[in-house]
């Protein structure tokens, strides 16, 4: 992960990766070193077979338990340690890859959230415009009704005036 951050050039990610390595790998490394050197440095936990107690703790029933050899030699031990280191590296690699995928997913979700918020704002604006359009249409409908009513009244008055004029014309003749 630290390598990815350095390639990316992001100082914050580099610092974060370094802290994660110190936090996650540091204690494991110290524990392995402690287990391998448990009696080699003479810290006196009562085990009399040298550094074998630490190896027993790390690799149960692997070489040299109480001075006996169960068919393993030092190259087998190195092979087991190398295999364990490879597994730890692979695990760390998978963890970093998973974290990277998680970060990408979180970034995508953040962008989607922004898009949804933008869409929500657009919907709110659209509703406001529709409400304004509805009120404008109602006002136009009222005006049209008033104009229509005025025209009907004018037509009615003209028709009444025509009948009145015709009746007077026929009465005089």
From TrEMBL:
The chain crosses the membrane at residues 149-167. It is a single-pass type IV membrane protein. One of its GO terms (cellular component) is late endosome membrane. Keywords: Membrane, Protein transport, Transmembrane, Transmembrane helix, Transport. Pfam families: V-SNARE_C. This is t-SNARE coiled-coil homology domain-containing protein. One of its GO terms (biological process) is vesicle fusion. It comes from Fragilariopsis cylindrus CCMP1102. GO terms for molecular function: SNAP receptor activity; SNARE binding. It comes from the Eukaryota. It is found in: Membrane.
């Amino acid at each position: 992960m630290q390598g990815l951050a350095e390639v990316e050039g992001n100082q914050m990610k580099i610092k974060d990766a370094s802290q994660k390595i110190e936090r996650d790998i540091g204690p494991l490394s110290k524990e392995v070193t402690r287990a391998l050197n448990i009696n080699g440095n003479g810290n006196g936990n009562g085990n009399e077979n040298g550094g074998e107690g630490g190896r027993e703790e790390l690799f149960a029933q692997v070489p040299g338990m109480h001075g006996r050899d169960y068919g393993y030699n030092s190259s087998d031990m190195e092979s087991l340690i190398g295999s364990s280191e490879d597994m730890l590296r692979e695990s760390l690699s998978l963890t970093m890859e998973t974290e990277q995928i998680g970060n990408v997913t979180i970034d995508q979700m953040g962008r989607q959230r922004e898009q949804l918020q933008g869409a929500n704002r657009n919907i709110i604006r659209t509703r406001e415009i529709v409400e304004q359009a509805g009120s404008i249409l109602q006002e136009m409908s009222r005006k049209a009704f008033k104009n229509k009513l005025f025209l009907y009244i004018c037509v009615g008055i003209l028709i009444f005036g025509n009948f009145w004029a015709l009746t007077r014309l026929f009465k005089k003749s």
